[in-house]
Protein: Fructose-1,6-bisphosphatase class 1
Organism: Sphingobacterium siyangense
Amino acid sequence: MSGITTLGQFIIEKQADFPYAKGELSRLLRDIGIAAKIVNREVNKAGLVDILGDAGQVNVQGEGQKKLDVYADEQFIKALQSGGECCVVASEEHENPVYIQSGVSKNAKYIVCIDPLDGSSNIDVNVSVGTIFSIYRRISDTGVSCNNNDILQHGTKQVAAGYVIYGSSTMLVYTTGKGVNGFTLDPSIGEFCLSHPDMQIPASGQIYSINEGNYSKFPNGVKQYIKYCQMEDSATQRPYASRYIGSMVADIHRNLLKGGIFLYPTTSAHPNGKLRLMYECNPIAFIIEQAGGKASNGSQRILDIEPKTLHQRSAAFLGNTDMVELLEDFLKKY
Ligand code: AHG
Ligand code: MN
Ligand code: MN
Ligand code: MN
């Protein structure tokens, strides 16, 4: 046997780490991995088949859906439905939770919140997109319908979270609260293989990632922080590099590997922030914390935010702890 560890093998090996070691969470993660491969196949041939462009519908966020948004959503829901371990899926693309109450899923113990395709605006131009997922354990009794309380749990209650990046290579990165591990899809064998064990954000970062076109709409503290990033100072290796792809997954993945801060503040256009708490901020915050970084909404730990609605938004500042803390200081000061 070669030295390769596939995602499937790794999940089984780590099963003992789960507080509820029954194999159900392992199977759920495996199902997500399978759907990710199907979506990857479609993303890869996007220019060749009729999958680019608008689907012609608008989702609950008021965003025009792309065909790949709809396709990815269908694939993940289908995989979770037939897998039998998930009782409800909360997706960016559905106003209401999608309950899976029938067949094998009746007694399912897990809840999945998902952004099936992150970075929609980059699909048509061959720039990296992603998938983000968050997994909770059901709190209501099995056998009856699960409910909103099962879905609207604090980020601290996540039992697993991860993302897939469909980039120059495709990777799946996830945590179950015992560190972060990254797997690269080997297309020749069709398996995600462990390539980035125990990922930790580097000790210091010199990258800031923000949509600076919105500068005039930012809170003053964020404006001042951007000026700080641009100021010359050899001791802190400033000016920092500005890097912004516009797919949260890709921006976070780069910063996780290289160090840096990702910012999506409140703006006058998005007074509560743009990114969604349940399927963008919380799962990425879990990963960033597990990798040794910090995730804040500017004044509070993201994972402690009280979820009130499924599509609730939040400001998000994620990355190296010292960078996020300095940003928080700027928000307090200005
Ligand atoms: P989605 O494609 O899932 O709707 O998410 C888009 C998000 C996120 O990926 C990205 O970080 C952000 O929107 C970009 O927003 P701006 O275009 O406003 O910078
Ligand atoms: Mn969207
Ligand atoms: Mn998104
Ligand atoms: Mn999306």
Q: What stands out?
A: The chain has a mean pLDDT of 94. Helices lie at 7-13, 24-44, 67-83, 148-151, 220-230, 248-258, 277-290, 321-333. The chain has eight helices and 17 strands. The CA atoms of residues 109 and 138 lie 5 Å apart.
